[in-house]
Amino acid sequence: MKILMVSxxxxxxxxxxxxxKDSGHEVYWFDPLDGNYENQRLNWxxxxxxxxxxxNFPGRYFIKNKFPWLYKLIQRINERPIDKAFEAYLQEVxxxxxxxxxxxxxxxxxxxxxxxxxxxxxxxxxxxxxxxFYQNDSARLREIKACLPHIDYMFADCARDITIAKKHGFKGxxxxxxxxxxxxxxAELTNFRKPLKERNIILIKGYEHHFGRCNMVLQALLSLKQxxxxxxxxxxxxxxxxxxxxxxxxxxxxxxxxxxxKISQKELIKLKGEALIYIGNSISDGMPNTVLEAIIMGTFPxxxxxxxxxxxxxxxxxxxxxxxxxxxxxxxxxxxKYAMSNRAMLESAFVYNLALIKRLDYHVIKEKxxxxxxxxxxx
Length: 379
Description:
The chain is α/β, with parallel strands linked by helices. The protein has helices at 11-18, 60-66, 68-78, 82-93, 103-107, 111-116, 138-147, 159-167, 186-189, 214-222, 240-248, 265-272, 289-296, 329-340, 343-356, 362-374; strands spanning 2-6, 26-30, 46-47, 97-101, 121-126, 153-156, 173-177, 201-205, 232-236, 257-261, 275-280, 300-304, 321-323. The strands form two sheets. It has a seven-stranded parallel sheet, sandwiched between helices. It has a six-stranded parallel sheet with strand order 10-9-8-11-12-13, with helices on both faces. The protein is globular.
């Protein structure tokens, strides 16, 4: 089967598409951003390169940096429309299936092309805030409602989004609910997992932006300074709003507090293997990869639950705690205090989660994903 992937470059896409390598399928890729990437993990794909510019003229970067107003004028003439470029590549490849990742980026821009070539099956992968948050934006909701009736199959990172898709016009078949990047290499990650008795780190996801609400967690810490004295508190963030909060309220003067800044995913995985408690807080998300990684690494998760997505993996008071109101710092403080004072719960959750993670194993999920692709009727 010929599969044409439509996705920007991301770690999630890179990991997901790797499941199809050596599967017997011919896999092609169209990047809607036309990024110039040299990614060794993607070099096995058939790739539509440099489709956007009609002419990559000398001095383009100089004009772009020094005279942005002129560059914009030139680009109105020099850039190919995404739908035209995609349709040309579609006709070249003649795929059996098109697989789009994320609605606004990879479905809406090619909708009219897919309607014209409706004999080609169309798969959509919903990630993160793709449906749950953006269904509340009138412009995005119009895109969602326009695209979903024409989509034949769907993957999602949480069951919640399958339900939302059906609400807004999806009449196709669900191919399953899986993490955005597929499964995890549990055998390798086990090497970084410390015994519970050796852990005293509280690890916090430091995102304060459109969705993230780290500062509510930091506000909760301020009321628990004495209770936290025996713990090491680490916040991973490259975020100005978080840095400003930390400085304003003097958290950077706590001897047991450290703002790590931006770290690699591998470093973060290792930290989770050393942390006792992980806290992630946001007003919107799908199934957070960060919480899945915490569970895999034996860290007790305290996580927000927008739209009920997180409760698909966390059973409250059993293998983690659910933040009911991400904007209530007192509530978050109560949850953290409860976790710190309930060692028996942390120990039972550690055992529970080590059994649970078997379903997140890379090979288990890969087998299911490949069966899902094979189930697609292309007649």
